[in-house]
Write a structure and sequence with these properties.
alpha+beta; eight-stranded antiparallel beta sheet; seven-stranded mixed beta sheet; 7 helices; 27 strands; about 40% strand
Length: about 375
């Protein structure tokens, strides 16, 4: 397994250097600002790497060379020795289709030697929760399924996913990796601390929360935020919810997208199932940076005799909260890895990965998701 990384700018395109003799990648991953000419850039990459499957998505910030970049282009071309790659794609996605899309994509990828899946999805027209459930329904929990939702900075207007020579909104692409030589490991870390009582979700529809313990959700939320409530919904980035099945140990973080004063409801970036419990969370810079480090620590290091690549997918909420210190979370994540392992990534509208104590792939908000791809040398 070999990989070569390169970057570019929206005003000047890709900056690539001479490739090593015989380098024939099977996969190219790339991320760029939503304003990019995505179809044009996708075509350039496909022409440059004719043997490769090329997949990309819009971002809320790019990660490469240990830095957090904005309004740039980052890519990595990956050549496997024994692993093969296949993609599946669905266009025209809408939130109500999300579970069916997950099932459809998993059907296209299913095979006895499937060893892992990475998903890139439109960030605004898909329910990440239902998408993960659809995959898990057919593939099960024995194969890691990770990925992220495309981003659009702090605008939340439009996102795109690129594949097959074009880029489109409403697209979901799943990449299947095949062969026993591949190891796919993952980790997630947040750095948020829970506070206040746990309350039962007594009324919710998908990602809209109406009542906790039979009381209006927004009124309760404001009560605990105190003076911070005046800054809603923006101030809610600092106070996500921890949601878990009643009596369970595992759970996921949910961040606020908006509030309705009339309905006294809160809209989150992921589903809130009825009967689950919810608890407020808060964090500080140091804890959040430590959470990013925990994501790569959970993965462990590549097995002896293997070469690897790390994919980092953090959430736009973390970038907005951390501000000028955002690069520190990337540095902390990379410090847990042996030197020399390449890493690339982007800021997203949510990460996809299994969660401890829960079945199947989950949508993670306000979290750093890290994925390690490594191929054992034989």
């Amino acid at each position: 397994m070999r990989s070569i990384q390169f970057t570019g700018r929206l005003d000047s395109g890709w900056h690539t250097s001479t490739l090593p003799d015989g380098f024939a990648p099977q996969l190219v991953l790339w991320f760029g600002a939503r304003q990019a000419d995505a179809t044009g850039l996708q075509t350039i990459l496909q022409t440059r790497f004719p043997t490769a499957t090329v997949v990309g998505c819009s971002s809320s910030g790019e990660i490469a060379a240990g830095q957090v970049l904005d309004s740039t282009l980052v890519a990595t071309a990956i050549e496997f020795d024994q692993v093969t790659v296949k993609t599946a794609c669905v266009d025209g996605a809408e939130p109500g289709d999300s579970k069916a899309i997950g099932r459809s994509l998993s059907l296209q990828l299913q095979a006895d030697d499937l060893s892992g899946v990475i998903i890139f999805s439109d960030g605004l027209r898909i329910s990440g929760t239902a998408l993960g459930q659809g995959f898990t329904d057919l593939i099960g929990t024995g194969i890691p399924i990770c990925g992220a939702l495309a981003g659009d900075g702090a605008r939340f207007e439009q996102t795109w996913v690129a594949s097959d020579g074009t880029a489109a909104s409403g697209r979901v692409v799943a990449i299947g990796f095949y062969g026993s030589a591949l190891t796919m490991r993952f980790g997630t870390g947040g750095g948020w601390d829970r506070f206040g009582p746990e309350r039962q979700i007594t009324r919710a529809t998908d990602n809209r929360l109406f009542e906790l313990d039979g009381q209006p959700a927004l009124s309760l939320y404001k009560k605990y935020l105190g003076e911070e409530a005046a800054g809603l919904p923006g101030s809610a980035l600092h106070f996500p919810l921890f949601v878990r099945p009643a009596g369970g140990n595992g759970g996921v973080t949910r961040t606020v997208l908006g509030v309705s004063e009339n309905e006294e409801s809160i809209t989150f970036a992921g589903d809130l199932p009825m009967g689950h419990t919810a608890q407020l969370m808060h964090g500080n810079f140091e804890r959040m940076i430590a959470g990013a480090a925990d994501s790569t620590r959970q993965m462990g290091i590549p097995p002896d005799g293997s070469a690897g690549l790390v994919l980092l997918m953090s959430c736009i909420g973390r970038k907005l909260v951390l501000g000028e210190r955002v690069a520190e979370e990337v540095e902390a994540a990379l410090e847990q890895l042996p030197s020399g392992i390449p890493a690339i990534g982007f800021y997203s509208y949510g990460g996809l990965a299994p969660a401890p104590g829960l079945d199947g792939t989950q949508l993670h908000n306000q979290t750093m998701t890290a994925v390690l791809l490594s191929e054992v040398r034989t």
